[in-house]
Predict the structure of Trk system potassium uptake protein TrkA.
Amino acid sequence: MKIIIIGCGRVGAGLAETLSHHGHGVTVVDQAPTAFERLGPSFRGETITGCGFDRDILLAAGIERCDGLAAVTTSDEVNLVAARAARQVFRVPRVVASLYDPRKAEVSRRLGLLTISPVTWGINRIVELLCYSRLEPVKSLGSGEVDVVEAEVPPLLAGRTVNELTVAGEILVVAITRQGKTFIPTLGTELREGDLVHLALLATSAERLKILMGWH
């Protein structure tokens, strides 16, 4: 894939090196020439000095034939403008913008832009690590609004059904691992002691899940 990265800070440089390592063609754009010093010797892509939302700079970076663009500068405004130009003007298939203001991230998602909010994700991740004493975090989705967690079925729930761990729009059992084998359950699947349940839940519904699991 051909990927353009706007911003060569810590995130941009790390992203560029990772994508380059995986064999993708990467072009990094940054206004400061010294920013490219963050790129390690293993980086095999291209660098362009200039404004990340300037049309001529984007054209020079090959935006008309790229497969994706990530705007990851420290400025929400720059990231938004670059992402919207890539998506709406140049029709880039995959565009992601990093936005530090969660409110802007929500508005951008409504406009169809893929966004990552480090602040929201970081807050939810810290809460997760501090408070999920019996829930094993696996992955955070979006900007941290949805978590995927694992938990062992307690004796209290043995013989109950998946339906009793399901809350529409909040908590969903997506898989069960039983005796080393993982399968997708139905709402009527019976839970057994020792089962490992894999759940998707809203980050705000962790306490409700604990109540369903009998941990309160």
